[in-house]
Structures
1.
Amino acid sequence: MPQDVQRPKIDYVIFDMDGLLIDSERVYGDVTNELLAPYGKEMTWDIKAGLMGKPEREAAAHLLSFFPDLPPHFTIDYYLEARRPLQDQRWPSVPPLPGAIKLVRHLHAHGVPIALATGSQRRNFELKSSHLGELFDCFEGRVVCADDGLLAPGRGKPHPDIFLVAAERFLKLDVGQGEVQEGHVSEKQREVRAKGLVFEDGVPGMQAGKRAGMSVVWVPDANLLSLGGEATSVDEQADLTLKSLEEFVPEEWGLPPYDS
C-alpha cells in the first residue's frame, strides 16, 4: 500500500456473492447466449455490464431492450422461465473464485463479523452455495437475498438498502436507513457505517456500498474493466480496486493478517 494512503480501521465486512465469491456470472452469460443463439443474437460484455447487480426483472428488461426484433413470445417472463432449468443444472457445480474461501474463512476464524448481501433469489442462493459449505457455512446464516422481503420494491443496488439491512439485522448495528448523505442519518450512524467494508464486483454494488457510507473493495471482471467508458464511469469510486480477492491485504484495514 502506498505510504500516503490511510485506510480506515474496519470492524465488520459485507460480501456480495455472484462474480465475487463464486464464478456464477459465467453461468448467467452461457445460459443467456444459449437461449439467444437460435435467433442469431448474443449478449456481449458491453451489454452484460449493464445487467450486473441489477434486480432480476430489471436486468432482463435491460437485456431484451438490445434485441427488439426477437419473436413476440420472447418476453421477460419467457426468458426468466426458460433460463431457470438451464441455470439450475449448473449451480450445484459453480466453483469459488480465487481467494474467496481463504479470505472468508480467515475473517470467520478471527471473529470478524461478516455477512452476505446478494441480489440472488433465496432458492438460487441455496443451489449455488449448498456444495460450498467450507465457504458459506462461515456466514452462519447471516445472508440477505433479494426476495427475502427485507427490501422495499425497487430498492435493489445501487440503493444501499441491502448492505444496511445486513448490518442492522444480522450484525446488530445501528446504521439507520437511506444514503449516508441524507439528513436523517445521525452522526453516530455515519460513524458505524464508516467502520464497514463491502466487497463487490459489479458497478451498482460498488455504488451501493459507497452510498451506504462504507468503504468498498471492488473486484471487477477484467472484461468489465476493458470496456471502460460508460460501463465503469459513475460518480462513486471504490476505495480500492483489485484484480482478485487474492490480492487483498487484511492488515491494511486493521484486520488480522493472514497466518504466514
Note: The chain is about 35% helix and 10% strand.
2.
Amino acid sequence: MNEQRIRWDDLQIVWAIADTGTLSGAGRRLGISHATVFRRLTDMEERLGVALFERSRTGYSPSPAGEDLAAVANRVETDIVAAERRLAGKDLKLSGSIRVTTTDTLFTGLLAPIFSDFRSNYPEISLEVVISNQIHSLSKREADIAIRPTRNPPETLIGRRVGDIALAVYGQRVKWQTERRPLSITDLSEQPWVGPDVHMGDTTLEKWMSEGGRAAQCHYRVDTMHGMQVAARGGSGITVLPCYLGDADPQLVRLSEPVPALTTELWMLTHPDLRHVTRIRRFMDEVGERLRRT
C-alpha cells in the first residue's frame, strides 16, 4: 500500500463502518447512501488488494487491516479537530459562529431571551443552538460551548459555575390553589407522582424519588422535564421541576420549598483551545453575567 492509494475519504468510510457495524449506519453518519458506502468500500478493497471487513448476517466486522485503517482514521480526525481549534483560537474578531449546546428546559426557561439580546448586540456573530439532553463533545467540535446543569463538570473543559438551579415540587394550580403552602415533602409523598423515566439520566432525581415511598406512588414517568411539566399541568400528578420553569407556568403552583438534595450547579463550559477566541470569551462573559443575575 502506498499513500496514493489511501485518501481521507477512504479512511472516513472505514471508520464509519467499523464504528457502526453496518453500511446503512455508516451512510447515515456520513450523509450518503448505503449503496455509495458499499461501492466505495469495494473499490477501496480492490485498490488495496486486501479485505477490510468480514461480512455476516449481523453486520460488518473489521479485519486486522480494517482495524488498522480505522485506528488511523481516528488519529487523523483527532489531529484535524485539534488544528481547527488552534486556528479558531487565532480569531480576534467579533464575528463568525458559536455553536452552543444546552437542554430544552434551560433554553425555553432561561436562555432564549438572553440569546436574543446577545444576537442583537453582536449581529455579526451567528448562534447555532443544539437543544439536546444528550452530552455533545466539545473536544470533537460538536459544540463550542455547553450550558448545562451538572454536579461533576468534565476536567478536560474549562468554564465557570454561573449559579445553582433549585428544584421544588409542583402541582396543577386549580387542584392545589386553596391549600396552605408550602407543604412538607412528607405530606406530599402519598400523592400521585409524575416522575423521571430512566432514559432521562438524572440519577439524583431517581434516587430521591425512590425515598419516602414516592416511587410507589409514581405510575407516570416521562423522559424530559418538559414532559413532566405538561403531565403535571394536566393533573396527572405532582412532580419535581426547576423553579425557573415551574414558577413561570401559570397552570402550576409550587407546593414545597426547594429541595436541597436536588439543587444542581449550572455551568458554562468550553474547550481550553477556544478560551482566547474573542467571540467565545465575549459570549461566556455576557451570557454568564446574565445567568448569574437571573
Note: The chain has three domains: 3-83, 96-160+268-293, 167-262.
3.
Amino acid sequence: MEMSQIRYVLAAAKHLNFTKAAAECNVSQPALTKGVKTLEDELGAPVFHREGRRILVSEFGKSMLPHLQHIADEAEATRALAQNFKLLEKVPVRLGVLSTIGHVRLARFLAAFEKQHAGMELSVSEASASDLKDQLTEGDIDVAFMTMSDELQKDFRVQPLYSERYIVVFPPEHRLGRLNAVPLKELSGEDYVDRLICEMREMVMSVCQAEGVELYARFRSEREDWVQAMVLAGIGFAFMPEYSVTLPGLLQRPLVEPSVDRTIAAITVPGRKHSPAVGALMRASHSFGWPG
C-alpha cells in the first residue's frame, strides 16, 4: 500500500470521477486508475463500482475510506512536523530581554527550551523598555520579555509569564533587617542606592512622594550589578524586583504599605506571523513552571 494509491482513492471518492481525480492528483487518468486497482487488489475487494464513466463507492469502500483518510492525515501531520523541525534549526529566534529581569530564572527557562529543541539557534540581547519596543516594531527582534503595562497591551500582543514583588535589599546588619517586611515609611531618611534603569522607578518615586517618604540617593547607576555591590558595601538600601537579586549576602525584605509588584510578559507584534521557531518559544514560555 503506497501513499500515492491512498491519495488516488480518496480523490476518486471525492469526485466520483477518475478524470477529475487524476487532475487533482496531477497524474494521468491511466496512472490513477492503475493505482486504484492495485490498492483494491491488495485490500481484496473493490472500493468502487464502475458504471461506464461513472463510479460509485462500494459498501466495502465506505468502510475503508475513514481508515484511508486517517492514514493520509497522519502522513500529512508527520510531513508538517518534519518540515517544522527543519525550520526550527534554520531560523534563529531573536529574543530581547529587559535589562532589569533576573538572569537566573530566565536561564533556567532557556536551558529547558534548548533541551527540547536541540540545534535551534537562539540569540539573546538586553535593552531598555523603550529600545525593546522599537526593536519589536522594526522587526529587529522576534520576542521581548519585559514588564507588562497598559501601553504595551494597547500596541502589542502580550502573554503574561509571572509576577514578582518589589523588595528592599539591605547590607548585612542593617537596622531594618530585624523586620519581616518593611513598610515604606520606615525608609524615610535612609541612605538610598538609586536604580536609574528601573522601568518602574518613576512609579516608585511617586509613591514615596505621596507617602511623604524622603530618600537621599548616595549612589546612582544604570547597572544592576553595581547597585547590588554598593548596597552590599553598605552605601544604602535599594528597591529591587525579588527575582533580580543575584548577589549573595544581601538582606531581602518584602516592601509593604504599600506593596509594589510587576508582571513579566512575552511581547510580540500583533498580526505578524510567527516562524515555527518563534511559535515553539512562545508555547514553551506559556507552559514553563515560572516562579510565583
Note: The two ends are 53 Å apart (CA to CA).
